[in-house]
Amino acid sequence: DTGVSQDPRHKITKRGQNVTFRCDPISEHNRLYWYRQTLGQGPEFLTYFQNEAQLEKSRLLSDRFSAERPKGSFSTLEIQRTEQGDSAMYLCASSPASPAYEQYFGPGTRLTVT
Amino acid sequence: QKEVEQNSGPLSVPEGAIASLNCTYSDRGSQSFFWYRQYSGKSPELIMSIYSNGDKEDGRFTAQLNKASQYVSLLIRDSQPSDSATYLCAVGDSSYKLIFGSGTRLLVRP
Fold it and tell me: What is the structure's pLDDT at B2?
């Protein structure tokens, strides 16, 4: 399977703990995106990378959130000092250089903060 | 703030009928438009993209775009129970990120 993969698929953590999620994009895709989705809503943009450069971060992304994409391959999203409001599905997507808008999603990581 | 609006539904159609899903967007400069299908508990799956005014057909799916009216639609012909899902409309902005609507839930009755 050469699709986008994410790990872990589910994460339960206690409030105040740090969590880290990993995304492996489709190998030939140079753009990688992180979105967050809550129940009944569409995915909401968090940040995106072109190769290893982080080009945009949503204003919704607090200082507790950080993302990296070392060497332009996989990416990690870390949430520090988790809060109950962070409970959501965290989705990673990737797109090729062209057509750059056509994004393909991974299975997501469901985070539950207790 | 750029917005994408969809009726949340549910839209209920009988098996074999045409399902019509609609979406409006606020940014008149938008150039790329997408429909994603999302089954319960799963991630969104890209099913259609459209960039020019008019219709684009792919199998049982037809996407329609009217930039003057800022309106995108998705028609599903010969609807099947397996088409029951939430359909998300997404619009690309100038920085390549997608702005999503909240989705329309489609129920196809056997």
Answer: 80
Closest approach of A113 to chain B, Cα-based (Å): 18
Whether the upstream peptide bond of residue A70 has omega within 30° of 0, thus cis, is no
pLDDT digits (tens, 9 = 90+) for B8-20: 989 999 999 999 9
% of residues, chain B, pLDDT over 90: 92
Determine the residue of chain B that is closest to A95 in CA distance: B96
Average pLDDT across chain A, whole number: 94
Dihedral over Cα of B28, A58, A97, A32: its sign: negative
> Residues B50-73: pLDDT tens digits?
999 999 999 999 999 999 999 999
Q: Closest partner residue to A100 among B88, B96, B102, by Cβ?
A: B96
- Asked if the model's pLDDT at residue A1 lies above 60, the reply is no
B26-44 burial: b if 16+ Cβ within 10 Å, else e: ebeebebbbbbbbeeeebb
Amino acid occupying residue A83: E
Of the candidates B32, B43, B44, the beta carbon closest to that of A101 is on B32
Determine whether the interchain pair A56/B97 forms a contact, defined as Cβ–Cβ distance below 8 Å. yes
User: B41 phi and psi, to 5 degrees?
Assistant: 80, 0
- For B74, counting Cβ atoms within 10 Å of its Cβ (0-12 exposed, 13-18 middle, 19+ buried), the class is buried
SS3 A72: helix
The CB-side HSE value for B83 (13 A sphere, CA atoms) comes to 28
Strand A10-13 to A109-113 pairing: parallel
